[in-house]
Amino acid sequence: MNKYSINYILTFLSCLLFIGSCTNDDEINEIVNEKENKILFTFNEVENISHKSSNIDFEYAIKFSYLLQKYDRIHKTNLSGLVNTSNAVKYNKTLKQNLIIESNDVYVETSMFSKLMENSNGDKWIVFPKIKNNTIHSFILGHLSQDKSNLYFYTFDNNSEFYKKNILAFQNAYDLKFKSSTQNRSGNYCDLEVDFECWFEGVIITPNPGGGGGYPGWGGGEGGGGGCAVYEDCEYIEPPTGGGNSSTSNPCEDIKKQTSDPNYKAKIDELNKNSILNKKHESGFSQNKNGSYTSITQTASSNISDGLIVDINSDLKGLIHTHQNSYETGNFDVNGNPEIRQPIKMFSPADVNALMKLALNQSHNSYGDIYVTMVSSSGVYTLKFTGKSSDIKTGFNTSYWTNEYLKFWNNEKGNNETKFLRFLSEKMNVTGVQLLKVDKNGKSQKKSLGSNKKVITDNCP
Fold first, then answer.
1. With contact defined as beta carbons under 8 Å apart, do 161 and 185 qualify?
2. Is the model's pTM score more than 0.85?
3. More confident residue, 276 or 44
4. Fewer Cβ atoms within 10 Å of its own Cβ: the N or the C terminal residue of the chain?
Protein backbone atom coordinates (compact mmCIF):
# COMPACT_ATOMS: atom_id res chain seq x y z
CA MET A 1 0.00 0.00 0.00
CA ASN A 2 1.07 3.65 -0.33
CA LYS A 3 1.03 6.11 2.54
CA TYR A 4 -1.73 3.94 3.97
CA SER A 5 0.71 1.17 4.87
CA ILE A 6 2.04 -0.78 7.85
CA ASN A 7 3.68 1.40 10.51
CA TYR A 8 5.54 0.72 13.71
CA ILE A 9 5.38 2.44 17.08
CA LEU A 10 7.42 1.88 20.21
CA THR A 11 6.12 1.25 23.71
CA PHE A 12 8.03 0.64 26.93
CA LEU A 13 9.81 -2.71 26.85
CA SER A 14 7.46 -4.13 24.21
CA CYS A 15 7.30 -4.42 20.43
CA LEU A 16 4.30 -2.97 18.67
CA LEU A 17 3.39 -3.39 15.01
CA PHE A 18 1.35 -0.51 13.67
CA ILE A 19 -0.57 -1.63 10.60
CA GLY A 20 -1.99 1.53 9.14
CA SER A 21 -1.89 4.22 6.55
CA CYS A 22 1.49 5.92 6.75
CA THR A 23 4.93 4.61 7.60
CA ASN A 24 6.04 7.47 9.80
CA ASP A 25 6.67 5.77 13.11
CA ASP A 26 9.18 3.65 14.96
CA GLU A 27 11.25 0.66 14.23
CA ILE A 28 10.37 -2.38 16.30
CA ASN A 29 12.25 -3.06 19.53
CA GLU A 30 14.83 -5.81 19.99
CA ILE A 31 14.41 -9.29 18.50
CA VAL A 32 15.65 -12.46 20.23
CA ASN A 33 17.21 -15.31 18.27
CA GLU A 34 18.81 -18.54 19.40
CA LYS A 35 22.44 -17.93 20.33
CA GLU A 36 23.62 -20.58 17.87
CA ASN A 37 22.17 -18.71 14.88
CA LYS A 38 22.52 -15.13 16.01
CA ILE A 39 23.69 -12.34 13.74
CA LEU A 40 25.85 -10.25 16.03
CA PHE A 41 26.01 -6.50 15.81
CA THR A 42 29.72 -6.05 16.39
CA PHE A 43 30.70 -2.35 16.03
CA ASN A 44 33.34 -3.77 13.66
CA GLU A 45 34.89 -0.51 12.46
CA VAL A 46 34.04 1.47 15.56
CA GLU A 47 35.93 -0.82 17.89
CA ASN A 48 39.11 0.02 15.98
CA ILE A 49 38.81 3.78 16.55
CA SER A 50 41.39 4.90 19.09
CA HIS A 51 40.53 7.54 21.69
CA LYS A 52 42.34 9.48 24.36
CA SER A 53 39.57 9.09 26.90
CA SER A 54 38.57 6.27 29.23
CA ASN A 55 35.14 7.82 29.84
CA ILE A 56 32.56 5.11 29.11
CA ASP A 57 29.86 7.67 28.23
CA PHE A 58 32.21 9.24 25.67
CA GLU A 59 33.20 5.86 24.20
CA TYR A 60 29.61 4.72 23.71
CA ALA A 61 28.53 8.13 22.42
CA ILE A 62 31.19 7.96 19.69
CA LYS A 63 30.05 4.47 18.69
CA PHE A 64 26.36 5.35 18.66
CA SER A 65 26.83 8.57 16.68
CA TYR A 66 29.08 6.81 14.16
CA LEU A 67 26.42 4.17 13.51
CA LEU A 68 23.63 6.73 13.41
CA GLN A 69 25.42 8.50 10.56
CA LYS A 70 26.24 5.20 8.88
CA TYR A 71 22.54 4.29 8.99
CA ASP A 72 21.76 7.67 7.36
CA ARG A 73 24.25 7.08 4.57
CA ILE A 74 23.02 3.57 3.79
CA HIS A 75 19.30 4.33 3.92
CA LYS A 76 19.46 7.92 2.62
CA THR A 77 17.81 9.23 5.76
CA ASN A 78 18.89 12.23 7.80
CA LEU A 79 18.09 11.34 11.39
CA SER A 80 21.38 12.91 12.46
CA GLY A 81 21.14 16.15 10.49
CA LEU A 82 24.79 15.52 9.59
CA VAL A 83 24.41 13.46 6.40
CA ASN A 84 22.70 14.64 3.20
CA THR A 85 22.11 17.98 4.89
CA SER A 86 22.36 21.75 4.44
CA ASN A 87 24.32 21.98 7.68
CA ALA A 88 28.03 22.72 7.35
CA VAL A 89 29.99 19.67 8.50
CA LYS A 90 33.56 18.42 8.47
CA TYR A 91 34.43 14.75 8.12
CA ASN A 92 36.74 13.40 10.84
CA LYS A 93 38.83 10.51 9.52
CA THR A 94 39.68 9.15 12.94
CA LEU A 95 36.14 9.15 14.27
CA LYS A 96 34.80 8.15 10.81
CA GLN A 97 31.87 10.57 11.00
CA ASN A 98 30.81 14.13 10.24
CA LEU A 99 31.12 16.81 12.89
CA ILE A 100 29.09 20.01 12.87
CA ILE A 101 30.76 23.29 11.91
CA GLU A 102 27.79 25.55 11.38
CA SER A 103 24.10 24.74 11.64
CA ASN A 104 21.44 25.80 9.16
CA ASP A 105 18.87 23.24 10.21
CA VAL A 106 18.13 20.66 12.91
CA TYR A 107 21.09 18.40 13.74
CA VAL A 108 22.22 15.96 16.42
CA GLU A 109 24.86 17.49 18.68
CA THR A 110 27.10 14.44 18.90
CA SER A 111 29.47 16.08 21.38
CA MET A 112 26.63 16.26 23.90
CA PHE A 113 25.09 13.13 25.34
CA SER A 114 23.51 11.61 28.41
CA LYS A 115 25.08 9.32 30.92
CA LEU A 116 25.05 5.76 29.59
CA MET A 117 22.00 3.98 31.03
CA GLU A 118 21.44 0.25 31.39
CA ASN A 119 18.21 -1.70 31.73
CA SER A 120 17.80 -4.50 34.21
CA ASN A 121 18.02 -6.90 31.25
CA GLY A 122 21.40 -5.51 30.18
CA ASP A 123 20.23 -3.33 27.27
CA LYS A 124 22.10 -0.04 27.04
CA TRP A 125 20.91 3.33 25.79
CA ILE A 126 22.21 6.85 25.44
CA VAL A 127 20.54 10.14 24.46
CA PHE A 128 21.70 12.96 22.17
CA PRO A 129 19.96 16.34 21.79
CA LYS A 130 18.80 17.60 18.41
CA ILE A 131 19.54 21.32 18.12
CA LYS A 132 17.89 24.11 16.15
CA ASN A 133 18.82 27.77 16.57
CA ASN A 134 20.80 27.01 19.75
CA THR A 135 17.72 25.41 21.33
CA ILE A 136 17.08 21.79 22.22
CA HIS A 137 14.62 20.87 19.48
CA SER A 138 14.12 17.17 20.36
CA PHE A 139 16.05 14.11 21.47
CA ILE A 140 17.30 11.02 19.70
CA LEU A 141 17.95 7.87 21.69
CA GLY A 142 20.22 4.98 20.76
CA HIS A 143 19.15 1.62 22.21
CA LEU A 144 21.55 -1.32 22.04
CA SER A 145 20.30 -4.78 23.01
CA GLN A 146 22.23 -6.65 25.68
CA ASP A 147 23.66 -9.16 23.20
CA LYS A 148 24.59 -6.38 20.74
CA SER A 149 22.43 -7.99 18.05
CA ASN A 150 20.21 -4.92 17.49
CA LEU A 151 20.66 -1.16 17.64
CA TYR A 152 17.71 1.22 17.20
CA PHE A 153 17.31 4.97 17.21
CA TYR A 154 14.15 6.75 18.36
CA THR A 155 13.23 10.44 18.41
CA PHE A 156 11.41 12.23 21.22
CA ASP A 157 9.82 15.55 20.25
CA ASN A 158 8.66 18.40 22.49
CA ASN A 159 5.29 16.71 23.07
CA SER A 160 6.83 13.62 24.66
CA GLU A 161 7.08 13.13 28.41
CA PHE A 162 10.74 12.29 28.09
CA TYR A 163 11.44 15.65 26.41
CA LYS A 164 9.53 17.56 29.08
CA LYS A 165 11.40 15.82 31.89
CA ASN A 166 14.89 16.35 30.44
CA ILE A 167 14.85 19.50 28.31
CA LEU A 168 16.05 21.75 31.14
CA ALA A 169 19.10 19.64 32.02
CA PHE A 170 20.24 19.49 28.39
CA GLN A 171 19.47 23.13 27.61
CA ASN A 172 21.38 24.35 30.66
CA ALA A 173 24.39 22.22 29.71
CA TYR A 174 24.26 23.46 26.11
CA ASP A 175 23.94 27.10 27.15
CA LEU A 176 26.86 26.80 29.54
CA LYS A 177 29.10 25.33 26.84
CA PHE A 178 28.11 27.07 23.63
CA LYS A 179 26.66 30.43 24.64
CA SER A 180 29.86 31.56 26.32
CA SER A 181 32.36 33.80 24.57
CA THR A 182 34.88 30.99 24.13
CA GLN A 183 32.59 28.37 22.64
CA ASN A 184 30.16 29.14 19.81
CA ARG A 185 28.72 26.21 17.94
CA SER A 186 27.61 28.36 14.99
CA GLY A 187 30.96 30.04 14.52
CA ASN A 188 33.94 28.02 15.72
CA TYR A 189 34.75 24.50 14.65
CA CYS A 190 35.65 22.32 17.59
CA ASP A 191 38.21 19.59 16.84
CA LEU A 192 36.55 16.83 18.78
CA GLU A 193 39.33 14.39 17.97
CA VAL A 194 42.03 16.20 19.93
CA ASP A 195 40.27 18.86 21.99
CA PHE A 196 38.34 17.05 24.69
CA GLU A 197 37.37 20.36 26.26
CA CYS A 198 34.87 20.50 23.40
CA TRP A 199 33.07 17.44 24.71
CA PHE A 200 30.48 17.39 27.44
CA GLU A 201 30.39 15.24 30.49
CA GLY A 202 27.40 12.93 30.29
CA VAL A 203 24.20 14.78 31.17
CA ILE A 204 22.24 13.20 34.01
CA ILE A 205 18.72 12.47 32.78
CA THR A 206 15.42 11.38 34.30
CA PRO A 207 14.36 7.93 33.11
CA ASN A 208 10.92 6.41 33.42
CA PRO A 209 9.76 6.52 37.07
CA GLY A 210 10.05 3.10 38.62
CA GLY A 211 11.91 1.83 35.58
CA GLY A 212 15.12 1.10 37.44
CA GLY A 213 17.11 3.41 35.19
CA GLY A 214 15.79 1.64 32.12
CA TYR A 215 14.61 2.79 28.73
CA PRO A 216 12.30 5.79 29.17
CA GLY A 217 9.49 4.72 26.85
CA TRP A 218 7.88 8.16 26.80
CA GLY A 219 6.51 9.08 23.41
CA GLY A 220 9.23 7.78 21.10
CA GLY A 221 8.68 8.76 17.47
CA GLU A 222 10.26 8.18 14.07
CA GLY A 223 13.62 6.49 13.98
CA GLY A 224 15.41 3.56 12.45
CA GLY A 225 17.78 0.70 13.04
CA GLY A 226 17.78 -3.03 13.54
CA GLY A 227 20.23 -5.89 13.29
CA CYS A 228 23.75 -5.69 11.97
CA ALA A 229 22.68 -6.05 8.32
CA VAL A 230 20.93 -2.67 8.51
CA TYR A 231 24.31 -1.07 9.25
CA GLU A 232 26.32 -3.38 6.99
CA ASP A 233 28.30 -4.30 10.07
CA CYS A 234 27.91 -8.03 10.63
CA GLU A 235 29.58 -11.12 11.92
CA TYR A 236 27.83 -14.42 11.34
CA ILE A 237 28.20 -17.21 13.88
CA GLU A 238 27.43 -20.62 12.43
CA PRO A 239 25.52 -23.19 14.50
CA PRO A 240 27.64 -25.83 16.24
CA THR A 241 26.53 -28.36 13.64
CA GLY A 242 27.66 -26.05 10.84
CA GLY A 243 24.21 -25.85 9.25
CA GLY A 244 20.83 -24.27 9.64
CA ASN A 245 21.53 -21.04 7.74
CA SER A 246 19.03 -21.50 4.93
CA SER A 247 15.28 -21.89 4.79
CA THR A 248 14.07 -25.38 3.93
CA SER A 249 10.47 -24.25 3.46
CA ASN A 250 8.47 -24.76 0.27
CA PRO A 251 6.14 -21.77 -0.21
CA CYS A 252 3.51 -23.78 -2.11
CA GLU A 253 3.40 -26.49 0.55
CA ASP A 254 3.45 -23.91 3.33
CA ILE A 255 0.61 -21.83 1.87
CA LYS A 256 -1.46 -24.98 1.20
CA LYS A 257 -1.13 -25.98 4.83
CA GLN A 258 -2.03 -22.46 5.88
CA THR A 259 -5.10 -22.03 3.65
CA SER A 260 -6.46 -25.49 4.50
CA ASP A 261 -6.78 -24.47 8.15
CA PRO A 262 -10.51 -23.76 8.70
CA ASN A 263 -9.75 -21.14 11.35
CA TYR A 264 -7.46 -19.24 8.96
CA LYS A 265 -10.08 -19.46 6.18
CA ALA A 266 -12.70 -18.11 8.56
CA LYS A 267 -10.57 -15.06 9.34
CA ILE A 268 -9.98 -14.38 5.64
CA ASP A 269 -13.73 -14.69 4.93
CA GLU A 270 -14.47 -12.37 7.84
CA LEU A 271 -12.22 -9.67 6.40
CA ASN A 272 -12.98 -10.19 2.71
CA LYS A 273 -16.34 -8.42 2.74
CA ASN A 274 -17.37 -5.09 1.25
CA SER A 275 -18.65 -4.00 4.66
CA ILE A 276 -15.09 -4.39 6.00
CA LEU A 277 -13.12 -3.20 2.96
CA ASN A 278 -15.27 -0.06 2.60
CA LYS A 279 -14.48 1.11 6.13
CA LYS A 280 -12.22 4.12 6.71
CA HIS A 281 -9.77 2.06 8.71
CA GLU A 282 -8.01 -1.25 8.33
CA SER A 283 -8.98 -4.44 10.14
CA GLY A 284 -6.92 -7.50 10.93
CA PHE A 285 -5.76 -10.35 13.13
CA SER A 286 -2.47 -11.60 14.49
CA GLN A 287 -1.90 -15.34 14.85
CA ASN A 288 0.17 -16.96 17.56
CA LYS A 289 2.20 -20.12 17.05
CA ASN A 290 -0.40 -22.08 19.05
CA GLY A 291 -2.92 -21.24 16.30
CA SER A 292 -5.00 -18.71 18.24
CA TYR A 293 -6.01 -15.38 16.70
CA THR A 294 -6.26 -11.93 18.24
CA SER A 295 -8.04 -8.93 16.76
CA ILE A 296 -5.61 -6.12 16.07
CA THR A 297 -6.49 -2.96 17.97
CA GLN A 298 -7.53 0.04 15.91
CA THR A 299 -5.88 3.39 16.58
CA ALA A 300 -7.60 6.75 16.27
CA SER A 301 -7.89 7.82 12.63
CA SER A 302 -6.04 10.89 11.39
CA ASN A 303 -5.27 12.46 8.04
CA ILE A 304 -2.23 10.16 7.73
CA SER A 305 -3.21 7.06 9.65
CA ASP A 306 -6.00 4.52 9.91
CA GLY A 307 -3.80 2.08 11.69
CA LEU A 308 -3.81 -0.98 13.89
CA ILE A 309 -1.62 -2.09 16.78
CA VAL A 310 -0.49 -5.62 17.52
CA ASP A 311 1.98 -6.89 20.08
CA ILE A 312 5.05 -8.38 18.39
CA ASN A 313 6.64 -11.16 20.40
CA SER A 314 8.41 -14.48 19.92
CA ASP A 315 5.08 -16.34 19.93
CA LEU A 316 3.77 -14.49 16.89
CA LYS A 317 3.36 -16.52 13.70
CA GLY A 318 1.64 -14.24 11.21
CA LEU A 319 -0.46 -11.18 10.43
CA ILE A 320 -3.63 -10.75 8.39
CA HIS A 321 -4.83 -7.24 7.54
CA THR A 322 -6.94 -5.39 5.00
CA HIS A 323 -6.09 -2.71 2.48
CA GLN A 324 -9.14 -0.56 2.12
CA ASN A 325 -11.14 0.54 -0.91
CA SER A 326 -10.99 4.22 -1.85
CA TYR A 327 -13.10 6.42 0.37
CA GLU A 328 -13.92 10.04 1.11
CA THR A 329 -11.92 11.41 4.02
CA GLY A 330 -14.46 14.03 4.98
CA ASN A 331 -12.17 16.86 3.88
CA PHE A 332 -12.51 19.04 0.79
CA ASP A 333 -10.08 20.68 -1.61
CA VAL A 334 -10.00 24.41 -2.40
CA ASN A 335 -12.68 23.91 -5.05
CA GLY A 336 -15.03 22.18 -2.64
CA ASN A 337 -14.48 18.70 -4.06
CA PRO A 338 -14.35 15.83 -1.55
CA GLU A 339 -10.89 14.45 -0.80
CA ILE A 340 -10.57 10.80 -1.84
CA ARG A 341 -8.06 8.52 -0.16
CA GLN A 342 -6.83 5.75 -2.45
CA PRO A 343 -4.90 3.05 -0.57
CA ILE A 344 -2.67 0.86 -2.74
CA LYS A 345 -4.00 -2.69 -2.78
CA MET A 346 -0.61 -4.34 -2.60
CA PHE A 347 2.11 -4.87 0.02
CA SER A 348 4.25 -1.90 1.06
CA PRO A 349 7.92 -1.78 2.12
CA ALA A 350 6.73 -1.77 5.72
CA ASP A 351 4.76 -4.97 5.09
CA VAL A 352 8.00 -6.57 3.94
CA ASN A 353 9.64 -5.20 7.07
CA ALA A 354 6.99 -6.98 9.15
CA LEU A 355 7.83 -10.29 7.47
CA MET A 356 11.52 -9.71 8.13
CA LYS A 357 10.81 -9.04 11.79
CA LEU A 358 8.86 -12.29 12.01
CA ALA A 359 11.79 -14.09 10.39
CA LEU A 360 14.20 -12.60 12.93
CA ASN A 361 12.07 -14.07 15.69
CA GLN A 362 12.40 -17.64 14.40
CA SER A 363 14.76 -20.04 16.11
CA HIS A 364 16.86 -22.32 13.90
CA ASN A 365 15.58 -20.49 10.80
CA SER A 366 12.19 -22.25 10.79
CA TYR A 367 10.59 -19.78 8.41
CA GLY A 368 7.93 -21.98 6.81
CA ASP A 369 5.04 -21.05 9.10
CA ILE A 370 5.46 -17.27 9.21
CA TYR A 371 3.47 -15.04 6.89
CA VAL A 372 1.99 -11.63 6.23
CA THR A 373 -1.37 -11.67 4.42
CA MET A 374 -3.17 -8.75 2.79
CA VAL A 375 -6.89 -8.86 1.96
CA SER A 376 -8.27 -6.37 -0.58
CA SER A 377 -10.86 -6.10 -3.34
CA SER A 378 -7.99 -6.80 -5.77
CA GLY A 379 -7.32 -10.17 -4.21
CA VAL A 380 -5.82 -11.97 -1.23
CA TYR A 381 -2.02 -12.02 -1.22
CA THR A 382 0.51 -13.58 1.14
CA LEU A 383 4.23 -12.96 1.64
CA LYS A 384 6.45 -15.88 2.68
CA PHE A 385 10.14 -15.77 3.59
CA THR A 386 12.17 -18.27 1.56
CA GLY A 387 15.70 -16.96 2.07
CA LYS A 388 18.52 -17.51 4.53
CA SER A 389 19.43 -15.54 7.63
CA SER A 390 21.74 -13.19 5.72
CA ASP A 391 18.78 -12.20 3.51
CA ILE A 392 16.91 -10.70 6.46
CA LYS A 393 16.88 -6.92 6.11
CA THR A 394 14.94 -4.43 8.19
CA GLY A 395 14.54 -0.67 8.35
CA PHE A 396 11.91 -0.32 5.59
CA ASN A 397 9.17 1.12 7.80
CA THR A 398 10.32 4.73 7.58
CA SER A 399 8.98 7.82 5.85
CA TYR A 400 11.89 7.61 3.40
CA TRP A 401 10.72 4.24 2.07
CA THR A 402 7.08 5.36 2.05
CA ASN A 403 7.94 8.36 -0.10
CA GLU A 404 10.18 6.34 -2.42
CA TYR A 405 7.43 3.76 -2.86
CA LEU A 406 4.85 6.42 -3.67
CA LYS A 407 7.11 8.03 -6.27
CA PHE A 408 7.87 4.68 -7.86
CA TRP A 409 4.21 3.65 -7.83
CA ASN A 410 3.02 6.87 -9.46
CA ASN A 411 5.77 7.04 -12.10
CA GLU A 412 6.18 3.42 -13.20
CA LYS A 413 3.97 1.33 -15.46
CA GLY A 414 2.54 -2.11 -14.78
CA ASN A 415 -0.04 -3.78 -12.56
CA ASN A 416 0.16 -3.95 -8.79
CA GLU A 417 2.10 -7.21 -8.74
CA THR A 418 4.69 -5.91 -11.22
CA LYS A 419 5.25 -2.64 -9.41
CA PHE A 420 5.64 -4.31 -6.04
CA LEU A 421 8.06 -6.98 -7.25
CA ARG A 422 10.12 -4.44 -9.19
CA PHE A 423 10.38 -2.12 -6.18
CA LEU A 424 11.31 -5.07 -3.96
CA SER A 425 14.13 -6.02 -6.33
CA GLU A 426 15.30 -2.73 -7.83
CA LYS A 427 14.98 -0.35 -4.88
CA MET A 428 14.91 -2.41 -1.70
CA ASN A 429 17.41 -5.03 -2.98
CA VAL A 430 15.50 -7.71 -1.08
CA THR A 431 15.73 -11.40 -1.96
CA GLY A 432 14.18 -14.44 -0.30
CA VAL A 433 10.61 -13.12 -0.30
CA GLN A 434 7.88 -14.96 -2.23
CA LEU A 435 4.64 -13.26 -3.30
CA LEU A 436 1.62 -15.58 -3.55
CA LYS A 437 -1.95 -14.92 -4.62
CA VAL A 438 -4.69 -17.11 -3.18
CA ASP A 439 -8.15 -17.42 -4.76
CA LYS A 440 -11.42 -17.98 -2.92
CA ASN A 441 -11.08 -21.76 -3.33
CA GLY A 442 -7.67 -21.78 -1.66
CA LYS A 443 -5.71 -22.33 -4.89
CA SER A 444 -2.38 -20.49 -4.85
CA GLN A 445 -0.09 -18.96 -7.45
CA LYS A 446 3.54 -17.96 -7.04
CA LYS A 447 4.31 -14.54 -8.50
CA SER A 448 7.89 -13.83 -9.57
CA LEU A 449 9.64 -11.22 -11.69
CA GLY A 450 11.12 -12.37 -14.98
CA SER A 451 14.19 -10.98 -16.72
CA ASN A 452 11.93 -8.81 -18.90
CA LYS A 453 10.44 -7.21 -15.75
CA LYS A 454 7.17 -9.00 -16.37
CA VAL A 455 5.43 -11.14 -13.75
CA ILE A 456 5.76 -14.91 -14.09
CA THR A 457 2.84 -16.87 -12.60
CA ASP A 458 3.32 -20.47 -11.48
CA ASN A 459 0.37 -22.44 -10.19
CA CYS A 460 1.02 -24.28 -6.94
CA PRO A 461 0.18 -28.00 -7.16
1. no
2. no
3. 276
4. C
